What does this fold into?
Amino acid sequence: MHHLSIRQLKEALLARDFSCEELARSHLERLVRIGAELNCLVSLTEEQALAEAREADRRLIRGDCPALNGIPVVHKDVFCTRGVRTSCGSRMLDNFVAPYDATVVERARRQGMVMLGKANMDEFAMGSSNENSFYGPVRNPWDRERVPGGSSGGSAAAVAARLVPAATGTDTGGSVRQPAALCGVTGIKPTYGRVSRYGLVAYASSLDQAGVFARSVEDAAFVLEAIAGYDERDSTSVDRPVENYVSALEEDAGPLRIGVAREFFGSGLDPAVGDAIEEALSHFERHGAGRRDISIPSLELAIPAYYVVAPAECSSNLSRYDGVRYGYRSAGARDIETLYKKSRSEGFGAEVKRRILVGTYALSSGYYDAYYLKAQKIRRLISAELREALREVDVIVGPTSPFTAFRLGERAGDPVTMYRCDVYTTAVNLAGLPAISLPAGFVHGLPVGLQIIGDHFSEARLLQIAHRFQSTSDWHQRVPAGCE
Amino acid sequence: MSGPAGIPSAGVSEEELAHIAHLARLALDPREVPRLREELARILALVDEMNAIDTADLSPMAHPVETAQRLRRDEVGEEDRRELLQQGAPEVEDGLYLVPRVVD
It folds into this structure.
């Protein structure tokens, strides 16, 4: 049953081919067996999952089923879950049991989804390889000596290995799309403000957005529809009705104009990945899409600007961890200053500390204009260029990542080498746009991700276009060896 | 490479690093300082790529979806959950958070 789509699972559960509890047990068994090898979960919530599944079975019998009744899900450990540890991949929150549910968690449950566990991730969502987790790296199901991408690496690996039909993630600079690309699954990062950030442990608040991993666009549409929408508890949540993403998939998408920006095909791109993306572009053309060459001249400034804006916001957001109210506290500090400093130094890992230092520097007296303000101006420029291009074309299409999954440790020695992974993803966050990554080929047995970027609140259209691609290709149906 | 507004970005001096670490309330292990300075220098060199363009005419953008901040009614919406919230605190007594002595 771990190969069935969400639509097929819904039908099978309604037909009583198996119960929600049987479905949960079967997935839990694989999560224990294969999930442990991949290290993709931080917590397995077996007891709670079985209780929720039995409740879903009772709803089935009563005949009052919400849309995703009994469908298993894994939440990235950045989402607060009441009564369940929410570690954020950090020693700082290793002992933190959230006192409330994130809106995403609450809405998924309200739609009947059964949470099986919490997914491993880069500490505080900072990283592009999932090597920054306090709980150790996640392994890529396609090659276990390689990274799954980050920061939502555990969610991506779990979905790729067929351990769960869907998982949630967050995307601040590419943290849904890049691991989706490296693990060969579908990952959508919605428009900023489309999904509530309430209960999502903050990294960079003007960039953070929750997203979904699934094995197909249709499955992703089911879950996004469940979690999206206005939430008065998040002041940046946008009050705008949620479209019916699933039924929109079958509507006629009409003529499609795709924009191809040359800046996405620069010297940093692995030529073999470039070939796979070219082939995907031809695929679109063969199926009737018009292609237009466009330019986003300032795209290469997205990484420098992002690595000012995100650390600046992170340094502010993470100042709350003080060893006093919750989380890690260093033993034996004799004054409050030492308590703060030792708790933070021992509780945070190396990359988190680097970003806090860079952010503090960029915001400090004398440097604010030169770094933070400059970065915000470049953010304006990049955003304007993208939105201008999106007036000419329906979507911008290109690679999600410049290369396929790299080896564990390969890029971990130098932070800048790691930051370069995000060359095609950060601009989207700076502009708050929605984007999706789809499996679009393989290079030496490793998946290639195709990125499709749309204008604000064009999720329905994006999903429609992506669905059209998956209806005429089968890259998303490949299964890693050992996960059949 | 020169930094923005003429600030040399050869990186951060030991004194500057100590200063920002203090601002960030981080205690640095002296043994990690040389490596950290080198990493920060590389990150700042990356960031300095921003200087490739003149941004004098651009207005800063703080937020991706520019709408007015919504205000809610000034009404209490949360119940008192102090006990629940303090369950995760390292040290609590009579509903108060305990910290080392601040004033002698």
The mean pLDDT of chain A is 97. The longest strand of chain A covers residues 435-443.
